[in-house]
Hints:
Elements: E1 3-21, E2 24-38, E3 43-48, H1 57-71, H2 79-90, H3 95-115, H4 119-122, E4 131-132, E5 135-137, H5 142-155, E6 159-163, H6 168-181, E7 187-191, H7 199-211, E8 214-218, H8 226-235, E9 239-242, H9 249-258, E10 263-266, H10 274-286, E11 290-293, H11 300-312, E12 339-341, E13 344-346, H12 359-365
Parallel strand pairs: 5-6, 6-7, 7-8, 8-9, 9-10, 10-11
Antiparallel strand pairs: 1-2, 2-3, 4-13, 12-13
The structure holds magnesium ion.
Magnesium ion is lined by residues 191, 193, 218-219, 243.
Domain Mandelate racemase/muconate lactonizing enzyme C-terminal: 142-239
Keywords: Metal-binding
GO molecular function: metal ion binding
Amino acid sequence: MKIASVEVVPVRLPHYKAASDSLGTYSFSNHGIVIIRTESGLYGAGEIALAWFGGAHSICREVNEFWADQLIGQEVTDIAAISKKLDELSDFSKRHLLAKAGIETALYDLIGKMTQLPVYQLLGGKSRTRIPITGAIHIDSLDMMVETAKQRVSEGFKELKIKVGLDDEKDLKAIRQIRNAIPDPVLLRVDANMAWRTKKQAKKLIDEMFAFGVHIVEQPLRDDCLDELSWLRDNTEALILLDESVWDICDAKRCLEKGAADLLHVYVSEAGGLNGARKIFELAELYNIDCTLGSMPEARIGSSASAQLGIAMGNLSAFASDVRGFTAYREDVVHEELIIADGYLTIPDTPGLGVTIDFEKLKKLAVQ
Ligand SMILES: [Mg+2]
């Protein structure tokens, strides 16, 4: 079946509540919803998600203007050939990996619907039935962070991820108070989002945090400080999880060769799609490294794509992933709910991504 049309609809998705990390505060997300149709009228859905620089709307425009026509007439199932073409169009631009991911996801959704198979079956089949998810704690007042931690534990999350990096003393206080307020078996992770300036500062903070039970430290230093990250990995007790350092397979290769990571945080978006993300998992496996899944935060279409990958990948870490971006949004463009219960995300066995577009809602959330 051939591609008849490719359209990206720019949408603005409102958050329930503004969320802060060391890079900024977010009250809405500007994403793009990719719709690829065949001549029979069947469609596949993808999402272009970008947290920074005002979101993905400029990328949506570029795809509609410069990419869409080039895809029309191609066989839907020729993912490798289409991927190669998109790689040529994405040369020198990490931003366009996000566009490639949105398009490739829509193709997988379409192929799933055509074959009546869930996408994880197209990626190698089921390695697990559910994905452990982190409970999120954003930067806020100390009282609010402790309250949120208790709330997340009561919701069933087994692992909490605390954003840090704006105020070292306050971060340490927050971790101490959270640790004292929740049961011991609940694991703590921090995400500095590159905020710490030197390996000396990072080591001091990691050592103190480890004493309060922080077992994973996500992206303590800037993305390109691989020598320093490798040193931290060798000289601290916590596991080093790299996020901003890893977009695509080339980044992952550099991190793995440098021995800079205990775990890699993989995004379908940043890797240029499901195949790009799968390649990172497979490369990491050669180094005996497990991966977790990140969140841009994608809404339900993008989150479903990440979840489908997570169900399939053998070396998805037993430590929790972040496939919970969709929980941030007050409104979304699909009919189906995604459910996190007792700290785990499960997805349906329905064809494709398992979500279908609510075109009324899409119209409502679309922006010019
Ligand atoms: Mg992160």
